[in-house]
Amino acid sequence: MVLNATSQKQIVEPAVAIQREYYRATASQYEQMREAEAEASELALTVMTSMIGYLGAQSVLDVGAGTGSGLLLIKKTHPEVQVIGIEPSIHLRQQGYAKGLSPKELIDGDGSCLAFSDASFDLVCEFGALHHIPDPHRVVREMLRVARKAIFICDSNNFGQGSATMRFAKHILNFCKLWPLCDFIKTRGKGYTLSKGDGLAYSYSIFNEFADISSCCRRVHMLNTDRSGPNRYWSAPGVALLGIK
Question: Which CATH superfamily is domain 5-163+194-244 in?
Fold first, then answer.
């Protein structure tokens, strides 16, 4: 289903307001509310920080940095590396400042229009932000643009979530190009769902970015961040992806 610009704006603007209010209300409990995701995030962060040395990266940009946990880990393990995180929620940024990050390290910004020139950072990453964004493809393209050496993405795979029957149905619908319409109906035209633990979220799969990433990167590596069968696309609820230019 394709929406015109006016329809998209009418849907996106209220969603942004809802999302900002959610982060305002939950900022002080942000980390505790995501304890269920902590193991997957820790695995992905450990993998990414190990790649910093492998890539010889001297600068890292974290898109949708939240309260800055990823930035703090990079500073701890690689103090010589320049780190910058962008986060549109002032309430989450304030939590990051309370942890010791400076306003120059955790800044306001829009992932769909990064205020940096091409190839500004050796490594550009994001952790669990894309499924909260109405146009994640645009954000990934921006990440690819400002990345000099590599990008690292850790996010959800909606086609690997749910029971085996549910996953099979999703794959059939997606193969028939009916999943966007099904999701539109399921969410009653909003395009997103609301939950206490994750706030406003869109149905999203990191595999939808594979074509764009592989066209810009000479090597692409993928890792499931949760329990999965041998086929990550079919069975992994969350996936981490490293694209090396």
Answer: Vaccinia Virus protein VP39 (3.40.50.150)
